[in-house]
Specification:
Layout: H1 2-23, E1 26-28, E2 32-36, H2 46-59, E3 63-68, E4 71-78, E5 81-89, E6 93-102, E7 110-112, H3 113-133
Antiparallel strand pairs: 1-7, 2-6, 3-4, 4-5, 5-6
């Protein structure tokens, strides 16, 4: 009987712990480093690579500011939230680097999971846009 109660208590504690972990909205900041441009798109001129990235960003509701050749700043705002990333690119690869967030619980290298979700979606959209650019 005592063992059954201890087992039940341990089981409840485990469920509670898993529940808290599942609700954790903080995640390490996601960074895209040297993501390869698809081989079929590598012969494209830099201007075409840039245009594919701009189109991908627009499709995901990011606004783009061109800072210099090979470097853009992308900003996404919704409700009271803001996220800003730098996108560095060449004909061979691109990177998406965290700049700042507002109202996304950024602290000590972690951020609300919505930031990571949106950066991953941007990464996937850029990949698709580069595939389409060579057709």
């Amino acid at each position: 009987m005592v063992l059954a109660k201890r087992g039940k208590a341990a089981g409840l504690a485990l469920v509670a712990l898993l529940g808290v972990a599942a609700c954790n909205r903080q995640q390490p900041i996601y960074t895209v480093t040297d993501h390869p441009v698809p081989p079929a798109a590598q012969p494209l001129p830099m201007k075409s690579v840039e245009q594919a990235i701009v189109e991908a960003a627009a499709a995901r509701r990011w606004t783009i500011e061109r800072l210099q050749p090979g470097l853009m700043r992308a900003t996404q705002k919704w409700r009271t939230h803001t996220m800003v990333v730098n996108i560095r690119y060449t004909q061979d690869h691109y990177s998406i680097e965290h700049v700042m967030t507002s109202n996304l619980k950024e602290q000590g290298g972690t951020v609300h999971r919505a930031y990571n979700t949106n950066v991953k979606a941007l990464e996937n959209e850029i990949e698709q846009s580069l595939h389409r650019a060579n057709r």
